[in-house]
Sequence to fold (802 residues):
Amino acid sequence: MFWAILSGIEGNLPAYKAVLKDIQRQPIRVEEIYILGDLIGPRPESEALVQYIRETRSHSTHICMGWWEEQLFNLHGLRRDPDAIALKEKYGAAAIEQLWNAVSRDSTDWLRGLDFGFFELDCLLAHGSTLGCDDELTPDTHPLTLLDRLLRSDANTLFCGRSGLAFQYQLPHSQITSTVKTIGTPTSEPVVQEYSLKPRQIVGVGNVGRTLDQASYVLYNPNNNKVKFQQVAYGENASAVSASRGKGFGSY
Amino acid sequence: MKIAVISCIHGNLEALNAVLADIDHQGADQTFCLGDLVGYGPYPNEVVEIIRDRQIPSCQGCWDEDIIDGLNACECSYPSLLAEKRGRLAHEWTDAEVTAQTREYLAQMPLTLRHENLCFVHGSPQSQHEYLLPETSAFIALERVLSTGADVLFCGHTHVPYVRTLSDGQLQIRVVNQAQANAQANSQTLTTPLKRIINAGSVGEPRHGKPQATYIIYDTLSEQTIFREVDYDYEKTCAAIVSKGLPPIFAWRLSKGLEFAEKADDPTHVCER
Amino acid sequence: MLTVVAGPCGSGKTHWIWQQMIAQEDAKPLAYISPATVGVDAYRLSLNVPQLQVEHDLPETSHAIRQAAEQQTIYLELGCYLSLDLPELAKIPHRQVAVVSPDCFAHTDWVRSDWEQWADEVVINAVPLAKITASKTTASKTTAIESEFVDSKTDLWQASLRGQVLDPASLHLFWQELVQGAYGRLIRAKAVFELADGDAIYVDHLPHQETTYQDLPLPKWLNGRPQRFSGIEMMGQGLDKGAIAATLSDCCLDDATLKSHQAALKESQAYLSQEAA
Fold:
């Protein structure tokens, strides 16, 4: 039983189709597909991508929302940042208009119905973390911060996609000593306890649509906890997309 | 240097006066306050006036934040319907009682305070609503202190004082970064520095089973903490609770050192509000 | 036959009556009368004794009482706050039974010999006394008894709670306050509560003991407000009845909360039975 976990399609339909094809080609059986947000991006192709997913998804494809979806909801006044300040800071003012035009009202309503994340077996799967879609976890994030994100939901593995990076950050063993004195404790007898954690990990599942001609995603076997990073090259049908790629929103 | 740290006064004027007298008697050089000046108790404006006039640096508590805009607390703070109703009544009463000047003062309070290698917050560095309990995961607790860059994190919010030392932390790490040309595993062991979390208890609504006000004195040189339990005429506060129209049950709960309504039921729960 | 059962507070009168009822060999219909109560004990008995006839008081005329006593086996339980003087029974053959417990003789100033004088039979019920507070064990028995006198200063408070559903966490909070004296000095309390999960429980607080909780043998009520008995009876001194009533009311679910809660329970029940199938 395998899971395919991907994120960041960003409206790139050819990249997404290439990933699906790659999943089908695998010798092992992929039983569940998780799409961890950022289906859309500030480009008109996003609408077609959303329609495609709505029409073709199977019951074993689980989709949660991501940062770009949150920005779209912000623009519609449905979240805490109606002026999309975060979006403007990161991608410039033009991106606001592009995103607004990228997705129809009907598709926006459908996106609003998506889950925030999933907890399956001992794994948390979300775009950012339980703190939100903008929580960007990378290999440079402090290990205690990563542990915090895992321990908040008592997950052994957290699959995330905000950074767009593909990485596996394992914490095979963690230990610490805690000494507590309370108001009832005589000074000579504080309570000392040693704590250790079983192995935990954070997996960045890569990004499907951002990089031209190359999509990345992850195959995961929950039975033996093995993670396999997949790189998928796809062809020149991406030309329509690449034309829009240079506009407005600089480097990722 | 001896510093006194007080927290969660909750409009209990009698208790505050007794604690300030005790602090003077203990010879503390400086006092810091961790917020929740108002809420539940009968003298919110008077408490704020004293803190302001004595220029005691104070960070903003969860009640202080709520009252600025007249908001109620998050329902996840309450362990039962009954507690929730009592909490709402307390909010409504306090909201009606506080003056504009009090609201102004509460609004300008910072979320955190710093003094050398010490950091002061109401709940946690993440949120005024997060409880840092002795049972909170030691790793999460350590993360909270490290995130401030301080060696000692002073917090309140739980109303039961404690000192927690986090030591001998070791994390084994193994990273495979696909972005690198040669995606090899990179292993290392991280040892964490010794850090402390010190909870200052509560002046005005103690929850350790006794009505005495609690606060702490910290010696920056010896790094020792003393718990202070201060007697005061709590019956006066009880009488004021009743005469001023707060739920009379608060008077009984104060005399028993029990929470009036909110309670940290689950140390793993983090209020997202 | 009419049996009048009396005894000090918490001595086990109802329990003894129940034991007599289930041991009865003849086929005479059983009846239970518990005057000046809201019916907590009557309800518990009726759950365990099918076809028990419950009345709130004796029939009005001597003739009617006599007739009833001939046709039924009647137990009349007198609460410890009620007078034992029953002029209406003066000319009617009846039995008087006192149920007492070894450590508890309090009823005004009666001691063992007074009960022996009043009763045809004295039953000594060894009610287990768990968690007697330290102060009581150092004092003499007489001192302990005096503190439980039921006299003219004793308050009674009762309420029917029919149709009300309580939030268990709120009930727990209220009950802790009640037994620790937040609403006055509590001597005795017993109640049947309907809870948010659809179950009904019996709660009993005896003097100087921890509260006992018992699930009642009833199906879950998951459709609207329960149409079965629930209520509370208590005895104490200086009871703040207004505050007790208001707090209990605050523990109850409103219509909207009850509706959504019951819907969620029914959904999870349906899900569980699907899983099992």
